[in-house]
Amino acid sequence: MDDRSIVELYLRRDERAAKETQAKYGSYCFTIAKNILEFHEDAEECVNDTWVTAWNRIPPVIPKSLKAFLGKLVRDISLSRYRANHAMKRYHSMQMMLDELGECIPSEFDVQEKLEQKELEVLINGWLVSLPHVDRIMFIKRYYYGEPVKELARLQGCTENQMAQRMLKLRNKLKSYLAMEGVIL
Amino acid sequence: MNKEDMYDGISGILPEFLEEAEQYTPVKKSGWRRWLAAAVCICFFAAGLISFFSSKQSYSPFVVTAYATGPDDTVVSSELHKYESVPVSLLETSSGMKVYVFSYGDGNNDQPASIAILSANGSMSIDSQINEIGHMQIENGKHYICYVPDVTETSPYRVSFFASDFDTGMATQYDISIREENGRAFAKLNSMVVSEMKSEKDANP
Prior knowledge:
By secondary structure, chain A is mainly α. Chain A is built from nine helices and no strands. Chain A has helices at residues 3-11, 16-37, 40-57, 66-85, 92-102, 117-130, 133-143, 149-156, 160-180.
């Protein structure tokens, strides 16, 4: 079923909406959740919560891209799960990803005020546009989809260390970009 | 801002970028064998392209069909492909001739079928009297070539005819051989040469 028809099911409050969404995007959302949280049962719960959240949000939200909407939901829910449980469970993947993303934040010397999330999103997208094709893809696979560095290295046919170095360079580039654009974090 | 804010900011990545990342397949590094295989493929592809675009090319818009008597006196058809032998039979027309039958179709079902008699000496004539060949279904839009072997002729017979495509201005010359042995006959497409149709003016400047 195409995305438009699925969204119409939500708008009509047709219970088939969740079933169709799961059929089409179940494994997509599960992959993201599993990459981030590692634990199968946590990932499953996050995905189930994603369907419920989507049902509650559509309407009034009418997503332009259902896939991107669901991807964002499952990432948000995974982050919430991490926050709730990380004292009890060690989510290595999420912790590592967050630590790496922390490196992208310019030094506190540049910090003046908190940036609105929307503004940050615009800046990150602007930075991604400037990247070479493969660099952009590797960044997105790592920090949006949560794919481990080892897996990205295998995909690109390089060593894990080489991929880690590539990611480090990208993070430094993002940090410089954000500082230069006057990102005020 | 903290690292979780960065994480949230990344959640807003444009859908187009996400699709791009999902559909990405890396170019695999290849050893010399892969390069050699790729080079060979490119050579074949280039040769095919040159052959296709040259004035005498072997790609034809038509498929030639051969006809044979099958079980229960039905007529079965087989597509002719280069160097492949297919069964053919002498079929009797409504005018009493015994012919080997081939056809090609231009798919124009508004047009009636045309039936041409091709004799051993290469002469061809359209026979509008024939309305039946064996027990075949004569189909609109198809051109039938009925080859009449000469009594003095011996197998293998050589059948040659042109099929013209007026839409593209190209004509294909088909060269078919018919071999008779042990009471059975087989046809084989030896060659098909496609060339540009020329008007009389072009042919005789």
